[in-house]
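Morning!

As promised:
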Amino acid sequence: MKATLLVKNAAQLVTSRDASDAPLAGERQQELTVIEDGAVAVNGSKIVAVGSTEEVMARVETDQKTREVDASGQLITPGFVDPHTHVVFGGSREHELTLKLQGVPYLEILARGGGILSSVEATRAASKEELVARGEKYCQQMLVQGTTTAEAKSGYGLTTEAELKILEAIRQVDQVQQVDLVPTFLGAHAVPKEYKGDPDRYLDLVIDEMLPRVAEKKLSRYCDVFCEEGIFSIEQSRRVLSAARDMGFELKMHADEIVPLGGAELASELGAVSADHLLVISDQGIEQMAKAGVIGVILPGTTFYLREDHYAPGRKMIEAGVPVSLATDFNPGSSPNNNLQLVINIACLYLRMTPAEVINAITINAAHAVGRASKIGSLEKGKNADIVIFDAPNYDYLAYRYGTNLVSSVIKNGKIVEEVQQ
Ligand code: IZC
Ligand code: ZN
């Protein structure tokens, strides 16, 4: 078999195996194949062989056109997948930092017309081209930090026109740079000021106008809702998600982040792909998610940034059999961070997840959370050649160091797109 690219001699190569049909849960969450002196061979955009350097060299043919990369002393992982971001938005919210430090809670800032609503104003005012340029910049930052695929939500428009503008911008950002984006429609992100005090009438618009337009234009296969006290209740969330499901959407949910409303139970009842946040998930919610196979996408960078006093019970969820994934939640308010490497650190230290569980959370389980596990999320023959090389001797090192970008090269669809001089 021919190779156009061969990465060899890595101190370690890590990947899940045989987990493309279902996310890793329970004991299996930490099942990681670790290959010393590892190598991966690529032909065009696909992986053709993975194993020790000796095994891979015996299996593939190279010629003078084959690009060879010596990864001596380094770590190879699958490209990271960030399954929960709000990467396309206008403006920024640094002015809220002082308010936050004065002790004004996140939901209170929103109730005063700031928070999400301030980003809505800036996003409505931005042209599609401006949104694309900003989204492109943020995606390039993600790529150099090892993220090769990310989910991207709408939700800062809150009118039909502005929501479509954001989803179209996401589609264009996907096309103009290397990180693959998976769009999610989040029209039910907040009640816009035009509908203040009347969330049900706003949801009529989401259900009767926005969802059908998004479906017709094929702008997203996922529908999400911000289920939270003062935003959308359980009943309102059930209404929008059921309507979306009837129109063929797959479901995601911002659930049980600040007030325990029973979001995890609703996500399980509706067969959502994922329920995200889950800081205050109930024991019953954990049990139901495990049973229904709903992926728990935990966003510990947000917990850190909101200065919440406790994190989602990641350890408990894994032990109860919930497949766990992790994401940055990159957004202008509660998590202005798009670096999954930082999420690795926080997840280990504060969710008490092991480095192996965390790697699976941001690769194969995250690929499941965005519906792409047959193509990405692991280094296996036939999958897309999305590969990261880290200046790290082993995968524990990724969780041990923090605050420095350890990426030395990123390979996207078989091409070296990022090479950092060490
Ligand atoms: O802009 O604050 N939680 N949505 C739900 C967000 C945070 C984004 C924001
Ligand atoms: Zn979010």
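The mean pLDDT is 97.

Hope this helps with the figure draft.
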